[in-house]
Amino acid sequence: MNKSAIIIDDELTSVEALRGLLNRYCPDINVVDFAHGVVSGLQAIEKNNPDLVFLDVEMKDGVGFDILQQLPVEPRFQVIFVTAFDHYAIKAFRFCALDYLLKPVDPDLLVQAVDKAVKVSNEAMANKIKILQKNKNGNEKIVLPSKDEFFVAEVNEIIRCEANGNYTIFYLKNHQPQLVSKTLKEFDELLSGSKFLRIHKSHLINLEFVERYLPKDSQVIMKDGARVEVSRRRKDVFLKYLFNN
Predict the structure, then answer these.
(1) Could you name the CATH architecture of 3-137?
(2) Which residues carry this modification: 4-aspartylphosphate (predicted)?
(3) Phi-psi region of 165 (alpha: psi -120 to 50; beta: other; left: phi over 0)
């Protein structure tokens, strides 16, 4: 089934490059219009009511987020962000499980992103964008994708994460554990910082939920009662945190 798309990007060369890739690798995507900024992008969306929007992050008259915030109603289209290098934006997208493409766009990743986008419901996309907007001043919520749904979790309610093959089990305050269809490595890269620490190849913990440390057993007792092993390789980093806080 053909899907209509618009490209919003202030670089004409990027627009032409992306349109060429779509014509070649995604023949079911019909580019019906393009725009070069926030104002013209809003006009193009209103005029065409597209199924899919490729949205540049940084433009001369604003950022792509501005378009989403200025829409009069919840978006009824899928969004794939396009960015050159903005690390903060990439992290924001990953927190919300939103797709993004790095310039220059890789054809294989483009096909994957389009395939995923056309399968996501408008409601799910609208919810992801809401989380993105709420996280504007800090990543307070995270979207956890499972096989059949997306679970929205407060970051400060994550007690710990445990590797389970290519999946990750999230243990949350006041919620049942969530089996998430991403690896622990991905969440380590996303969450590690002031509050989260990888203490074992299979365990990422929220340091604010540490209750006790048992040196003899090299284990941490979490506030939910779980005993989590601290590996020898990561013990020094963990102990440094304990003594400095």
Answers:
(1) 3-Layer(aba) Sandwich (3.40)
(2) 56
(3) left
**Which CATH architecture is the domain 153-244 placed in?**
Beta Barrel (2.40)
CA atoms within 13 A on the CB side of 61: 12
Please return the burial class of 91, using the count of CB atoms within 10 Å of its CB with bins 0-12, 13-18 and 19+. Answer: middle
Give the C-alpha separation, 34 to 55, whole Å: 10
Query: Distance between CA 195 and CA 205 in Å, rounded?
Result: 8
pLDDT attached to residue 69: 81
Give the Cα separation of 243 and 23 in Å (integer). Answer: 58
Residue 147 has phi, psi (to 5 degrees) of -65, -40
Please tell me the distance from the alpha carbon of residue 210 to that of residue 215, in angstroms, as a whole number.
14
Convert the pLDDT of each residue in 118-158 to its tens digit.
877 666 777 777 777 666 666 688 888 877 778 888 899 99
Burial of 235 (0-12, 13-18, 19+ CB in 10 A): middle
- On whether the CB atoms of residues 32 and 48 are closer than 8 A, the answer is yes
- To which H or E segment does residue 130 belong? helix 122-134
In the block, residue with structure tokens 């590996």: 231
Which pLDDT score is estimated for 235?
Answer: 92
Q: Where are the domains positioned within the chain?
A: 3-137, 153-244
